[in-house]
Amino acid sequence: MLHLNCVSGCKSSMTTCFRALCCKGPPPARPEYDLVCIGLTGSGKTSLLSKLCSESPENVGSTTGFSIKAVPFQNAILNVKELGGANNIRKYWSRYYQGSQGVIFVLDSASSEDDLETARNELHSALQHPQLCTLPFLILANHQDKPAARSVQEIKKYFELEPLARGKRWILQPCSLDDMDVLKDSFSQLISLLEEKDHEAMRM
């Protein structure tokens, strides 16, 4: 009887092991989010996205129209549509907003006063655009490694983010190509906001 119980127990254990090994199936697919990335020419949009995709940012030219990159993270894939930032292209940005689930706005924190003013106006327009105003925003104050870079607090005050973006989902983060940990953490925070918006939509 003892021997039979042992055999029975072994068979049961083998069945459990077999199911664990062979019936586990592939891991669940990572969610994908469609994002639009905007900012003036020279803000560093293309270089940042290339670095996140483990591509060399060297010899990267300015985007003249738009480009799309699938940026992989451990818990999500971000399909980022990057729009060129030249003056003759910015007026067409809104044509590419449809279908976006989040916004990445990159600014050059070391730029001239004129360019910073233009960036502020463009960000204000995006935050108030009907197709973007309810979406999560990641605002990256790039080129923090440059001597003339403004701090995040200076950017927040100059861009009037507290009154303008009150009630919206937004993150303002400093970044540079030299600190990928900070950049990846910024995108992790954005993914959390995207997931929160997804969960809210499911509860409605």
In brief:
The protein is of the alpha/beta class and 204 residues long. It has helices at 2-22, 45-52, 87-90, 113-128, 152-158, 161-164, 180-203; strands spanning 32-38, 66-73, 76-83, 102-108, 137-142, 170-174.
Task: Compile the SSE list and pairings.
Layout: H1 2-22, E1 32-38, H2 45-52, E2 66-73, E3 76-83, H3 87-90, E4 102-108, H4 113-128, E5 137-142, H5 152-158, H6 161-164, E6 170-174, H7 180-203
Parallel strand pairs: 1-3, 1-4, 4-5, 5-6
Antiparallel strand pairs: 2-3
Binding site for Mg(2+): 46, 63
Keywords: GTP-binding, Magnesium, Metal-binding, Nucleotide-binding
Protein name: ADP-ribosylation factor-like protein 15
Name its key features.
alpha/beta; GTPase activity; single chain; GTP binding; 6-stranded mixed beta sheet; disordered N terminus; metal ion binding; 7 helices; 20% strand; Small_GTPase_ARF/SAR; 204 residues
